[in-house]
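Table S2 (continued). Query chain:
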Amino acid sequence: MAVRRAEMIAQTREKLIKAAREAFATKGFADSSMDDLTARAGLTRGALYHHFGDKKGLLRAVIAQIDAEIMARLDASLKNAPTAWEGFIDESVTYIMMATEPEIQRIVLLDGPAALGDPSRFQVQNACIVSTQRTLERLMEEGTIRKVDTLATSRLLNGALLSASLWIAQAEDQQAVSKQAVDSFVMLIEGLLLKRRPAPGTAASRTRPIPAPPRASRAPRTSG
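Corresponding output:
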């Protein structure tokens, strides 16, 4: 019985999160009513209150789900690169370019901060700082970068990445701003290298094509 109850709770939460994620991505947080969300899920307001407290609690759960997907994508970028340094760059570029994706842009970068406050306090930011710190430690151990305070440097770099993402999300010309952000960030982190000019063939020595942001359902500049 306990196992069955746990399964039912998980299913109810998943239905509400799925319905909310679809509504927040298309209509925005402010314009998605609780009645609409529960109707989409085939549930009642009572279920929403019971599992998430209120609509903001549901938004936190949706952002947490998206954050987990973001971290998986960043981890893949890091692991699939031929070197730790290239992985560091690929991971950073991937993070910046996610800001052009309509769902992430609207829910995480626009509506999230408007409804929940400072995005630097979102759970994914702490995970990113820890990941960056580990990467910097590895790069120091292999002699790729100079000795730095890894915690301080990780916080500064992740602050720059978050700021770039918020800039892109609000920009009119997201393609141009994305290119500026990527080029400037790569130039910034090249300052960590023991040899400022990277060896031929490394990620930092190549000209990176910047993919165009998705055209469909571009998020509005305000969350309403």
